[in-house]
Write a structure and sequence with these properties.
Helix content is about 40%, strand content about 35%. The chain is built from 2 helices and 5 strands. A 5-stranded antiparallel β-sheet has the order 1-2-3-4-5, with no helix packed on it. It folds into 2 domains: about 40 residues; about 50 residues. The chain is elongated and about 80 Å long. The model has no long low-confidence stretch (mean pLDDT about 85). About 0% of the residues are buried. It is an alpha+beta fold.
Length: about 100
Amino acid sequence: MWEVLHAVLALMLVLGLLLLTVWLIKWAQLKAAACGVWQKMASRERLRIVEQKRIDTKSKLVLCQKDDCEFLLWVGAAQCLLLEKKDNTGKAENHDEA
């Protein structure tokens, strides 16, 4: 009988500690979001796809951003072309050779 009681109490203790941990994590996220820590951590992401548009079944236009530069890419089945690069100053470099 005592073994069952000990097992139930141990289970309740473990579940309580898990719930306390989850609550502390949520509380820390709310506090950190208020001071902008999570935004700063998320901003460390250097490369992201801003937008993409499908042209046909084998090709699409992809707008990528790395740090403060944006790249417009033509991605096809056999090749990838850099159409335009825009740096953080707003100066666009046209790489289209057509």
